[in-house]
Amino acid sequence: MRHTRTLLTTVAALLLLLTGYLAGTQHALTPSRAYAADDCRTFTQTGHQACGAFLQYWQDHGGLAQQGYPISDVMSEVSATDGKTYQVQYFERAVFEAHPENSPPYNVLLSLLGSEKYKAKYQQTPPSQATTTPIPATPSTPTSSPAPAGHIGPATEYPNPALTPGDTFPGVTQAQVCVSGYTEGVRNVTSDEKAEVYRRYGVPNESGKHEVDHFIPLELGGSNMLTNLWPEPYEPIPGAHEKDRVENYLHDEVCSGRMTLAQAQEAIRTDWVAVYQRIPMSNKGG
Fold it and tell me: Do 214 and 236 touch, CB atoms closer than 8 A?
């Protein structure tokens, strides 16, 4: 019996020590320390990493859908709110601010970005808010929008310009996109990102109905950003398969020197259906 009591006491003491160690480790996990590689996640879409406590906050608070991609590294910045210097990191939809003086989960807070932008924009003349139309409590997700003036096809043939205006890799050149195998080297859209594309458009992910398409195609310098992705329908025709033929045709035009890369990108963005209607029948697969 004495041996049993001694063993239980020892186990209890070890558990208390382990709990204290883990708590201390969690508190120390803030952006002020040097992180090992396995504490970080690299986002090839923007070339930046999220590490440690910032990565934890990103994962716990909506991830890609709510915060977007990181668009900066961690940096020191003087807050316009209180004049103090903080370690911050910019994401597409937020600015993370490190507060190592706080215990987790409050060791990362969002900067008062809305307050700062409001003061900067309306400091002299506040907007009239009495006549502002209230925002619905549960707004519907836009699935499509009327085709802009000049489009010859129905709205379903084009992405919603508010969600997918099109995006290209910075500095991409004609020489790069004309190298064999270029698209395989830059294609990087995860299953989570594809799911987010369907969510943004309010479209069910049903086999055989849509494909997640690069609006400005990779072979013409398009990027993997969400602003360049949309759930393109296969029908009505011309649909996803026909747009592929337009992309191949324009790629051939660029690589033969008959068209510049910028002209091909603009042709897709302006009205890809119009391009489809004027390309030779041999390029249409007919």
Answer: no
Distance CA 94, CA 70 (A): 9
Of 250, 240, 251, 175, the C-alpha closest to 211 is 240
> Residue 94 in 3-state DSSP?
strand
Q: How far apart are CA 177 and CA 185, in angstroms?
A: 11
**Higher per-residue confidence, 19 vs 209:** 209
Q: What is the pLDDT of residues 107-157, one digit of tens each?
A: 888 887 776 776 667 666 666 554 444 544 444 444 444 445 567 888 889
Measure the CA–CA gap between 64 and 157, rounded to whole angstroms: 27
Question: Angle at CA 30, nearest 5°, toward 27 and 36?
Answer: 110
Q: 63 in the Ramachandran plot: left (φ > 0), alpha (ψ -120 to 50) or beta?
A: left
Containing H/E element for 124?
A: none
Computed from CA positions of residues 248, 251, 256, 260, in that sequence, does the dihedral angle turn out positive or negative? Answer: positive
User: At how many degrees (to 10) do helices 240-255 and 261-278 cross?
Assistant: 130
